[in-house]
Amino acid sequence: MTTVLIVGGYGTFGGRLARLLAEDKRVAVVVAGRSRGAADAFCANSAMRGVALDRDGDVEGVLARVAPDVVIDASGPFQVYGDAPYRVATACLALGISYIDLADGSDFVEGIAAFDAAAKARGVFVLSGASTFPALSTAVLRALTRGWRQVERIEMGIAPSPYVDLGRSVIGAIASYAGKPVAIIRDGAAAMGAGLIDARRLTVGAPGMLPLKRRRFTLADVPDLRLAPKLWPGLREIWAGVGTLPAIAHWGLSAAAWLVRLGLLRSLTPLAPLMHLVSTRLRWGAHRGGMVVAARGIDAGGAAIARAWHLVAEGDDGPFVPVMAAVAIVAKVLDGAAPAAGARAALDEVSLEDFAPLFARRAIRTAMHTKMPEGLPLYRRVLAEAWDALPDAIRAMHDGVAAARGLAVVELGRGVLARIAAAVMGFPKAGTDVPVEVTFDAKAGRETWTRRFAGAAFSSVQYAGRGRWDGLLCERFGALSFGLALVTGDGKLRLVVRQWSAFGVKLPAFLAPVGETFERVDAAGRFCFHVEIGFPWTGLIVGYRGWLVPHQNGAGAFAEDGQARDA
């Protein structure tokens, strides 16, 4: 039995770490914190046990009594640990106990190397930064750039769910660098950015996933900004940011950071308790979070290459991600493959493959994709690697087919507004076993779809989104444009509306079209479609479902078996 003591073990991240470690019966988990009562309450009805440990008190004495094999510091904020920031690490060294922390502060993680000689002399490992940054991010970058000749640009972002309590330590860490200079690389030279002020807009969600809503990220002070250039010499740019929701709270945080940058406040650290309170009160939007790591460079053959890795976590599973590197390291200890003795940042201890089983146990989906060449068919280009997961009949329909024929069932909404909208858009009349023909005209990377239902025709233009529509398939009906996420899974290709506009003006998401739209394959191996179009204020406008088979030059006859109503 391996005993692991977690400092801050009943906190936001320490508690999740304790729960993950306790799932392994080879681990005895000791939950430590300032309040023995809180520790005991957390451990109630479990095999874990609690102890009181104040990191400003007799740390060495408590550790000597408990005698753990590994100590994990999950307390923080590491950026403001005071005059003796490595008190827990030095207590572990004095007793010959291996140490891990979840630090994401640049100074703290980089400074742990000062204890390398002492750790080697005691035969223990002392690892800092076993968290999202830099342990997971570095593992991702190694996987993304494997075999590359040169890594030139790195861009990273973390987007927590608005419903997750980030904890006071995380808010304190953010407050510590808000508005202050943050070292980055820009245009191949060392530069300074401004914490929580310098901003970019990023999309989290690889092709085939339902992405997070595109959002604003502001510069975060993470260890990677200092450590990555040492791993990949020749970097011309590195940037990392945090994208919190709701947007109004994020803008307010940036405004407060400007007070520090302008010298009106020395720091936002005294405001951290208020910031935490606000973050727990302002909550709306989807309960989803994620992460993106993107790299550009030169591949082994000398060609330019761009590749990205995305993680999307549903519900309350996102906050498990920052503790998974520590769990993976403990798993190596249990398997007899403990990290080498010495003190260092946790950059080489875990690989992306080590995270896979941990992700699989939660509602966490990851994917890696490479930017596709412009000459590929539209759907294949937008879906990238997710294209290969589609059934053959769906891929065939989107891979150069000029026209297709079949049968459909068409339903119309009953409301007055719905019928007016259907007439204006030229949607077909209601009916069963309605002959349908679709022609696909591909030019300059765009596809014009013309749908004919019993002779009634309406068209749309589809193309790959750019800018704020990045990663989406765009479809334009006259003045209206829709940004659609192409989502794969369960043998279907779902088209989900994520953005929309009229005459180029972005419209509110809560007013966007509603309805289920997907493609699938039936038992006969035919391509089937299911489309519902409506709005919250109209209800269903039109719905049509049926099947199609490719045909060339207008040849081909409508099949008489498999009625459309059964497709």
Task: Offer a few descriptive terms.
16 helices; 7-stranded parallel beta sheet; single chain; 567 residues; 27 strands; alpha+beta; disordered C terminus
Rg:
27 Å
Q: What distance lies between the first and last C-alpha atoms, to the nearest angstrom? A: 57 Å
Q: Largest beta sheet, briefly?
A: 10 strands, antiparallel, barrel
Strand order in space, largest sheet = 17-18-19-20-21-22-23-25-26-27
Question: DSSP helix count?
Answer: 16
Oligomer: single chain
In terms of DSSP E residues, the strand content is: 25-35%
Low-confidence stretches: 554-567
The count of strands amounts to 27
Shape assignment: elongated
Could you say which structural class the secondary elements and strand pairing correspond to?
Answer: alpha+beta
Average pLDDT figure:
92
Helix content: 25-40%
Describe the model.
- It is a single chain.
- By secondary structure, this protein is an alpha+beta fold.
- A hairpin with a 2-residue loop joins strand 8 and strand 9 (189-194).
- Helix 3 packs across helix 4 and helix 8 packs across helix 11.
- The longest helix has 15 residues, at 247-261.
- It is elongated.
Offer a concise description of the structure:
26% of the residues lie in helices and 34% in strands. The chain is an alpha+beta fold and 567 residues long.
SSE topology sketch:
Elements: E1 2-7, H1 12-22, E2 27-33, H2 36-43, E3 49-52, H3 59-66, E4 70-73, H4 87-95, E5 98-101, H5 106-111, H6 116-122, E6 125-128, H7 132-144, E7 150-159, H8 167-177, E8 181-186, E9 189-194, E10 199-202, E11 215-219, H9 224-231, E12 237-242, H10 247-261, H11 272-281, E13 288-298, E14 304-314, H12 324-334, E15 342-345, H13 352-360, E16 364-370, H14 378-383, H15 392-397, E17 403-412, H16 416-425, E18 431-443, E19 446-453, E20 456-464, E21 473-477, E22 480-489, E23 492-502, E24 505-506, E25 518-521, E26 527-535, E27 539-550
Parallel strand pairs: 1-2, 1-4, 2-3, 4-5, 5-6, 6-15, 7-12
Antiparallel strand pairs: 7-13, 8-9, 10-11, 11-12, 13-14, 14-16, 17-18, 17-27, 18-19, 19-20, 20-21, 21-22, 22-23, 23-24, 23-25, 25-26, 26-27
Helix pairs in contact: 3-4, 8-11
